[in-house]
Write a structure and sequence with these properties.
This protein is mainly alpha-helical. It has 23 helices and no strands. Helices cover about 75% and strands about 0% of the residues. The radius of gyration is 26 Å and the shape is elongated.
């Protein structure tokens, strides 16, 4: 099968790759076959370009310049199964030319994507000492720090890169990721808006915008962003699940059911999707169909904690608290730290008047989700029912942040 040429964004990526390759330090003249590989890149035929370059490397394995070029192409092509090969090609090139920041940057990129971000930081620090004004190093270090969970530091580097590249949609998207992780949701939403304006056909960016707007309660705009993401990525079940959730919050239950059905068609055995579909069916007055759906799913995956939790939730909504409690108990035997199942179990205990057990379950839920204020309100309600008014008041104040 021949690889079809693509236009537009693929050609731009190919040109961007050629720019990166031109920045490598080698002065050796590349073999004639390299020109054909470069042409394949510019016309979007990445697979053909990689095949040609592999043959060149196999013919002259001592040529570190060719090995480095192949490694950069592998990273650009997203060849995840060949990341170690990229590291192996770049490491001797860095050893030969240790003072070249571009080589350091690409080796760091390969290390991060191979699961070795700490090793990548060392190379990036050397690269930044060699060329502190190189924006690519700032970006790569910011992304690496984000992988390491050092989000505040990552934001400093990403903002530094943005100062030189204010029209980079990818950088605005990265800034949104950092701010979202830091809980600065309004700022994250604004960063994603700017990214979406610059990357109008990138479904992932629109999805990020929609998800953060869900958190800020801007449901209408969130839905518009997620629907645009689905148009760009129609076969993404995660997106369809998020659209369904947003539609359900907006009271558009029938549309939510349709979105969940589409997601279920793409991943028919996903407990999460089946649970979401069942919940939407229940909201839409189709409780019998929702129960049948979950029962059929549990026959295929008996004991699945997500499905058990979803079935228990439906039973709880129907007022069948004892039957629901059995589902939550079984779910927690299989996944003892599941905060949703713990909270649902506690709610059943509370509804049945078993306040001491409810209190214990809510405290376990707080241990797994310390930032969830609703658990604190529920603990306060349990203490109040148990006649421990002073402790209840303290807990309510804690939930209010007083």
């Amino acid at each position: 099968m021949t690889e079809a040429a693509t236009s537009g964004s693929a050609r731009m990526r190919g040109i961007g790759l050629l720019t990166d390759l031109a920045a490598l330090p080698w002065h050796e003249r590349p073999p004639l076959g390299w020109a054909a590989a470069a042409l394949s890149l510019v016309t979007g035929r990445v697979g053909r370009a990689l095949s040609r370059c592999r043959k060149l490397v196999e013919a002259q394995p001592e040529r570190l310049d060719l090995r480095a070029r192949l490694a950069v192409m592998l990273l650009h092509a997203g060849a995840e199964c060949e990341l170690q090969a990229a590291v192996d090609h770049l490491a001797p090139a860095v050893k030969r030319d240790p003072d070249h920041p571009h080589l350091r940057r690409w080796l760091a990129e390969a290390l991060v994507r191979s699961g070795m971000p700490e090793a990548a930081i060392a190379h990036l620090d050397v690269g930044l000492r060699l060329n502190p004004d190189m924006p690519e190093l700032w970006v790569t270090k910011g992304r690496t720090l984000l992988v390491l969970g050092r989000t505040e530091e990552a934001l400093v580097f990403i903002d530094g890169a943005l100062a030189g590249r204010p029209r980079s949609g990818a950088l605005w998207n990265l800034r949104g990721l950092c701010l979202n992780e830091l809980g600065r949701l309004q700022e994250a939403a604004e960063a994603y808006r700017r990214a979406a304006r610059l990357l109008r056909t990138d479904g992932a960016v629109w999805a990020n915008l929609g998800l953060v707007l869900q958190k800020t309660g801007e449901t209408a705009e969130a839905l518009r962003a997620l629907l645009r993401a689905v148009r760009l990525r129609p076969a993404d079940p995660t997106l369809l699940n998020n659209v369904g959730y947003t539609l359900l919050r907006a009271g558009r239950t029938r549309e939510a059911i349709e979105s969940y059905r589409q997601a279920s068609a793409l991943e028919p055995d996903s407990p999460l999707t089946l649970g979401n579909l069942a919940a939407a069916l229940f909201e839409g007055g189709m409780a019998a169909e929702a129960t049948r759906l979950l029962d059929a799913a549990l026959q295929k995956a008996p004991g699945d904690p997500t499905l058990l939790n979803n079935k228990g939730h439906l039973l709880m909504k129907a007022g069948q608290f004892r039957e629901a409690l059995e589902c939550f108990d079984e779910a927690l035997r299989r996944a003892p730290d599941d905060p949703a199942a713990l909270a649902n179990q506690a709610a059943c205990y509370f509804a049945l008047g078993r306040y001491e057990q409810a209190l214990s379950a809510y405290r376990l839920a707080v241990a797994t989700e310390p930032d969830n204020k609703q658990h604190l309100w529920s603990i306060g309600a349990c203490l109040e029912r148990l006649g421990r008014a002073e402790e209840a008041l303290q807990t309510y104040n804690q939930a209010l942040g007083a």
